[in-house]
Amino acid sequence: MQQTETLFIQHFGNPESRLLDYYTSRMIGYQALKKAFGMGQDAIISEMKASNLRGRGGAGFPTGVKWGFIPKQSPKHKYLVCNADESEPGTFKDRDVMRYTPHLLFEGMVIAGFAIGSNIGYIYIRGEYVKEAQILEDAINEAYAKGFLGKNILGSGFNFDLTVHRGAGAYICGEETGLLNSLEGKRGEPRVKPPFPAQAGAFGGPTIVNNVETLACVPHIISRGGDWFSKLGKLEKSGGTRLFCVSGQVKKPGLFELPAGGVTIRQVIYDYCGGILNDAKLKGVIPGGSSAPVLTPDEIDVVLDIEPLQKVGSMLGSAGLMVISEDYCVVKLIHRITKFYAHESCGQCTPCREGCHWMEEVIHRILHGKGREQDLDLLTDIANNINGKTLCALGDAAAGPVLSFVKKFRPDFEAYIRGKKCLSA
Amino acid sequence: MPKCIIDGKEVEFIPGENVVEAAKRAGVEVPVFCYHPGLTVVAQCRMCAVEIEKMPKIQTGCSTKVTEGMVIKTQTENVKKARSSVMEFLLVNHPLDCPICDKSGECDLQDNSFKFGSPYMRSTEERRAYVDLDMGPVIQKNMNRCIHCTRCIRFGDEIAGIHEMVALKRGNNTEISTIDGKPLETDYAGCYADVCPTGSLTLKDFRFNKRAWFLKKTATICEGCSRGCNMELHHENNVAHRCIPRVNMDINKYWMCDEGRFNYQYIKDELRISQPRVLNGGEQQSAEWAIAISRARAALAGKKAVVLVGTDLTNEEGKILLEFLPKYLKGTPVFHFGTPGVTAVADDAPADRILKRKSKTANLHGIEKLGFKGLSVIPSGTEAVLVIRAGRAQIPDLTGVKNRVGIGVFDQSQTEDWLVVLPGQAFAEKNGTIVNYEGKEQKYKKALNPPENSKPLSETLMLWMNSQISGGVS
What distance lies between CA A309 and its chain's CA centroid? Predict the structure, then answer.
């Protein structure tokens, strides 16, 4: 196990760390913000580009490049939105960032707002995060009271207002345009792109939507430099550390902060998480939240980062690893995953609305002893007809797991279809 | 004009145009469900899949704007597979009840399924079913047939200006409904049936009336107001069954109001007078034309009379009257009438923010231009009145005028105490020119044969000229 510098995790679990006193005495304490005001917008954005910080929400888009898309002049208000919907199953990192280091997030947001010329920030937090929303509200009050939010922050002349907006419990509101619709009080449905949010986002204004962890990295980058941050990562394009959420059948599940691109899946499971529960055999790993295609034990020497996982046909997504042991039934698991996506489909576009539910029904049938030989080809075909053909990425998120499970665990499905029982459980 | 390549052919396009429209002008069909040229683009149905060079994924033709040199392919294997898969998805839960569906024969779902779908159904799962609430008098809803294209929601929001149709729940359970299941409020509700690409929203008025393929379609103009919306009258065996709007981007675009849409019904009303009628001993009876005409002349002769000319008449009819009235009803004052409160072109104005005009007749502007003056009040002391109209102009209050004669389209309840009624022809039963509020001349086209014993205005006047005044007014 490597010992590397961490940015977040040393504060997690500490009930004091959410307070402004703690943040000013033991963390960055809005000093990066002061520095940012002195740097100016262009310098901040180039520092962000140099940091190789890639969006931590799932798509992995370079943050500095994204900020650069915002037009300098805009007749409409510009908005900065923090995506705290964290709805991908297997992901629980943003929750701790908000619980334990809310001021780090706020400082990142004020810097981001200053860099893109936005005076209005929203934190769109998932409805289930009731406590976290309260923590954010309390911390926002503290920050306003000390002048780190509001008018003329630190005497810079820059104003920034921050509002917490609670969602009502829809996965699709983690998709950035679905989130913006929900924020505007509309039905939480993704929009047709283009226009992208940087051109016309919240309330029609140019908008940046960044993930919680992404924004919480910003103060570190500003205070210690893009180069320093970039070098924390072990791959050329991926800077910084990453919070990995490990769940499933491992001995020690939880949050791990590790260098981006610095570890393989095998290392995470066996070095950091102490191996598989009950020392059972590994059946598979879902590496990036439940929408990431599953990997089999012979594929886990892959480095946990965006490009390496792409090469083996999966994705890093939100860095939520779900570890499946031989003790667990993969047919049951894919049924649960598919049911989730069918339930969360917004219903706008045809392939996702009809296809996800259809897949769920077919798998349900297989699971209950009514499967047919041709069902597996049918499932694959339905998934292919969804994949890449939907309005937003939810369709792909539902299709990827089905395609990979059917391909990689075909004998398990066949056992259900023929022998009516599971190979593993 | 800039050019793009569609299926290997160089095609000119209008800047800002989407792939669906550019292809349409080039004679290439890109099938659609949710796309409607009069509504915003949502790219939801995914039917208009096309491939575009340099773009990795399938694109939707509705949401893709054509750019100079763009290479668009609509016939690749990927495109065909995408379309047929969308068709399959849409039919997984569709009831396939075409044999009893009013939309059958003119249904986008049916047509696209025939052209782009597979003849085989792979789904064996139970189909989704909904309980439908009543949506009021105009629209019959059948949610089971719905393909969630949201055209109706967008029509309400964007055109009718009322947010009454909504999507409830989500995903596979998404239900298109009115808010709280209330009846529809808009007076453009018929358009919900027009925009629906399947049999989910159909007209109650047309329900189970006629299979669509039996209908003959005549392109004509609505007579409901001075806008002159272009429409198609659908009929079979000389019976009118419905009207639907016909696209005219300068006048009504894709829409029409319910008042105009259902106005045609009086044509087949049981009470419509289709035989000459005369009042005998306090009771109206059918009569020979010759007798009725003489009685009509007698009713006016020697009395202080006025002639009222409906602004629902055509220009041609107006011109004949200009010849006829000065000679055969010499000295009798003539006024036009049609809508209470609209006595002149100057009174005509928009009646809503969409299409409707205050003048409830189609040819106010034409008739006035011919020189007729509007009626404000019947001159006092008037003893007799001759009302000439086509069925739409609202008959003014004739209280105190004892001797009433009508030429044209009337129903019995309006005229039971009139001395004579000479049956004429409604807008759908004749050709003719009308002038809308902007001065645009448009043509009525004859779709139906008039009642056997009615006559065109010209013939009625000819009989009048050649007849004698009969003795005795009852």
Answer: 16
Query: Looking at the partner chain, which of B45, B89, B172 has a beta carbon nearest the beta carbon of A347?
Result: B172
- Contact A350/B41, CB-based, under 8 Å? no
Q: For A39-67, how does the pLDDT look when each residue is reduced to its tens digit (9 = 90+)?
A: 999 999 999 999 999 999 999 999 999 99
Q: Is the same domain home to A221 and A259?
A: no
Q: Do A347 and B125 touch (CB under 8 A)?
A: no
Average pLDDT, chain A: 96
d(CA A239, CA A56): 11
pLDDT digits (tens, 9 = 90+) for A63-99: 999 999 999 999 999 999 999 999 999 999 999 999 9
State the pTM of this model.
0.94
The Cα–Cα gap between B231 and B219 comes to: 6
- Contact status of B79 with chain A (Cβ, < 8 Å): no
DSSP single-letter state for residue A9: G
CB contact under 8 A, B86 and A351: yes
Within the 119-158 window of chain B, which residues sit less than 8 Å (CB to CB) from chain A?
A: 122-123, 125, 147-148, 150
Residue A4 has pLDDT above 90, yes or no: no
pLDDT(B124) > 90? yes
What are the tens digits of pLDDT across the range A207-256?
999 999 999 999 999 999 999 999 999 998 999 999 999 999 999 999 99
- Rounded CA-CA distance B213/B200 in Å is 19
A interface with B, Cβ–Cβ < 8 A, is: 170, 172, 187, 192, 342-351, 353-358, 361-362, 365, 378, 385, 388-391
Domain boundary among A294, A325, A356: A325
**Residue length of chain B:** 474
Q: Is A383 found in the same domain as A318?
A: no
Q: Which CATH number fits domain B3-90: 3.40.50.150, 3.10.20.740, 3.10.180.10, 3.30.420.140?
A: 3.10.20.740
Question: Can you give the residue range of the structural domain that contains A150?
Answer: 9-232
d(CA B138, CA B187): 9
- Closest chain A residue to the Cα of B78, Cα to Cα: A385
Pairing of strands A241-248, A254-259: antiparallel
Which residues of chain A make contact with B92, given a CB cutoff of 8 A?
A: 354, 358
